[in-house]
């Protein structure tokens, strides 16, 4: 199937031969067309595809998927930056990018898996209108059936033998798929006596309370700076656009420090934006970068944007240090 616009295709493979049947032709076709070819795949598949390419291996840029697929939003940002850096050839003429991108699914929680499914769907929006091509391999030998089925809903095309493809009969519009992911997200955090209220003039107190809480959990200084910057941006947005006041709730589990920012809302009749903060903003735009930056700084983020009161929950990986203290409150301010 030939396409002149953006192509997003899933390759569901059950053997090494099937992996090569789909990826080798895809890579060689890109090289023959003078396109930049990037392969972000599992370690064993780097070796497999590299050997099959032979002398042309050095013309393909290989990256281990474990080093690339850290968080959904940062991964989308990384692909966006890569395409922006490689979208012209040596003579300054427009150039297409061809990507083999194999997401890392093993070891994810149900919540994390759903957010990676959302990411796959959002690629169709983020790169719409470009001539780039992304082929996403799914190893049916190792992945849960639900993950494999999701590929038919997040990819408009499915790879067939010998480099051919067919339209997916189960493809879901990204806006509809996004709404499904939202419907399955975790409930809001319950109120606690030590929740931190905020309003105009209290952002410094919120930052100090967050820093103290995270340091007690052993969060590194570098990661702490990201956390404080991201939460501060959300709190400021709530003060400016969410009725001027709200509450910060801090919790943690074995994996994450969880920061939930809720506000009272304005009551104004406004329509929330689609895909808030997921899509790369125009670099020349003065406004519209806030939620994008917040998503780049956090590991996961869920949002409910409502004129009656919005809730933004940020997740930050806490690392190996520090005991879990879910029942311990943050310091009062």
TrEMBL record:
Keywords, sorted A to Z: Kinase, Serine/threonine-protein kinase, Transferase
InterPro entries xrefs: Anti-sigma-factor_SerPK (IPR050267), HATPase_C_sf (IPR036890), HATPase_dom (IPR003594), MEDS_domain (IPR025847), RsbA-like_anti_sig (IPR047718)
Domain MEDS per the UniProt entry, residue ranges: 8-156
Single GO term (MF): protein serine/threonine kinase activity
Record has RNA-binding as a keyword: no
Residues of the Histidine kinase/HSP90-like ATPase domain: 204-315
Gene3D superfamilies referenced in this protein's UniProt entry, alphabetically: Histidine kinase-like ATPase, C-terminal domain (3.30.565.10)
SUPFAM superfamilies on file: ATPase domain of HSP90 chaperone/DNA topoisomerase II/histidine kinase
Protein's UniProt keywords contain Transferase: yes
NCBIfam families named among the record's database cross-references: RsbA_anti_sig
UniProt-recorded name of the protein: Anti-sigma regulatory factor
Origin species: Streptomyces aurantiacus
């Amino acid at each position: 199937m030939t396409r002149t616009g953006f192509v997003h295709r899933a390759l569901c493979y059950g053997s090494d031969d099937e992996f090569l049947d789909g990826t080798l032709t895809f890579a060689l076709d890109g090289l023959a067309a003078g396109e930049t070819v990037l392969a972000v795949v599992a370690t064993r598949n780097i070796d497999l595809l590299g050997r099959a390419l032979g002398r042309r291996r050095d013309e393909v840029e290989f990256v281990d998927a474990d080093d690339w697929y850290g968080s959904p939003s940062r991964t989308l940002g990384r692909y966006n930056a890569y395409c922006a850096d490689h979208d012209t050839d040596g003579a300054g003429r427009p150039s297409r990018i061809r990507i083999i991108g194999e997401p890392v699914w093993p070891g994810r929680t149900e919540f994390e898996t759903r957010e990676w499914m959302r990411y796959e769907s959002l690629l169709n929006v983020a790169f719409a209108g470009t001539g780039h091509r992304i082929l996403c391999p799914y190893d049916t030998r190792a992945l849960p059936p639900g993950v494999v089925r999701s590929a038919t809903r997040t990819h408009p095309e499915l790879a067939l033998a010998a480099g051919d493809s067919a339209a997916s009969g189960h493809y879901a519009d990204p806006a509809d798929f996004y709404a499904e992911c939202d419907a399955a997200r975790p409930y809001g955090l319950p109120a606690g006596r030590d929740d931190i209220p905020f309003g105009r003039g209290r952002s410094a107190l919120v930052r100090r309370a967050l820093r103290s809480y995270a340091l007690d959990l052993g969060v590194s200084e570098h990661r702490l700076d990201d956390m404080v910057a991201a939460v501060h941006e959300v709190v400021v947005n709530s003060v400016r656009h969410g009725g001027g006041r709200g509450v910060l709730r801090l919790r943690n589990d074995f994996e994450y420090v969880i920061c939930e920012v809720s506000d009272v809302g304005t009551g104004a009749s406004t329509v929330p934006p689609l895909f808030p903060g997921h899509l790369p903003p125009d670099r020349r735009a003065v406004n519209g970068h806030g939620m994008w930056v917040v998503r780049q700084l956090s590991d996961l983020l869920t949002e409910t944007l409502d004129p009656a009161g919005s809730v933004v929950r940020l997740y930050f990986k806490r690392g190996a240090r520090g005991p879990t203290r879910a029942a311990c409150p943050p310091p009062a301010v």
